[in-house]
Amino acid sequence: MTWGNHSLLMEFVFLAYPSPPELRVLFFLGVSLVYILIIGGNVFIVVAIHTEARLHTAMYYFLGSLSGIELCYTAVVVPHILTNVLQSEKTITLLGCATQMIFFIGLGSADCFLLAAMAYDRYVAICSPLQYPLTVTLTLCVHLVVASVVIGLFLSIQLVAFIFSLPFCRARTIEHFFCDVPPVMRLVCTNSHIHERVVLVEATLAIAMPFFFIATSYAFIVAAVLKIHSAAGRHRAFSTCSSHLSVVLLQYGCCAFMYLRPNSSYYPKQDQFISLVYTLGTPLLNPLIYTLRNHEMKGTLGRVLARNCLSQSN
């Protein structure tokens, strides 16, 4: 079986994993701990939004969907990383690499589109509060979440199909922890600017376009908030956006650094660290940001913990 000129059973070897046994154990324990926290934090948000009636609003529906996508997003690569740490041969087949890239890039892109949808939700809530219940309905929320995932996966499939149609060099070693666009593109033998431009166009559609929409939404939000005469009103309006804006800066900052630049500026060690930040750091910090900076989520956390304590005491 072949895909273009490549055998689907062709294997790539990952080189980023630590070799000394002590470092491998520390790396495994560190990644495992962070992954457990990611699962716990995001599952808590999903369960809290599902069980608390006061959180059954568009903003929290988007937040729950974001947590669900990030659980799937990390599940694509983190178990693979943990497995490779324990194995002597850290390999992956061409088909496995392509499949991993499709879901990793697709769900990551869905994250970006969903953050844009959340910015639209905040824009309508602040700039047109009277129209908000009629405009941002549950049906619209579902459509936006589904569209984010579908468009993200569609762009990802196109990009991965293009990359794996290119000729790879004989040295099939990936200087990374998993299959990602920059390190895999380093294996391509043809050194054409056309190939880089195609990747940059796809990255622009998935990253720069949603970010431009978010920036435009916040420009209107800031203009509307500055017209509020009450200082308390301005603070309340800004506080509803601060968590989202923090997540946007973290997510888009890492993604732009990794994907919106030419292949020639790829530095393995630096990019391996950045990839761990947006693969593990962002899904870990998002629940913390939304919980600690949101009064309703903090109240929900307190009620959930209180219920658990009461149930255990009884």
UniProtKB/TrEMBL annotation:
One of its GO terms (cellular component) is plasma membrane. Keywords: Cell membrane, G-protein coupled receptor, Membrane, Olfaction, Receptor, Sensory transduction, Transducer, Transmembrane, Transmembrane helix. Pfam families: 7tm_4. It is a multi-pass membrane protein. Its main location: membrane. Coiled coil: none annotated. Putative odorant or sperm cell receptor. This is Olfactory receptor. The gene is LOC109247009.
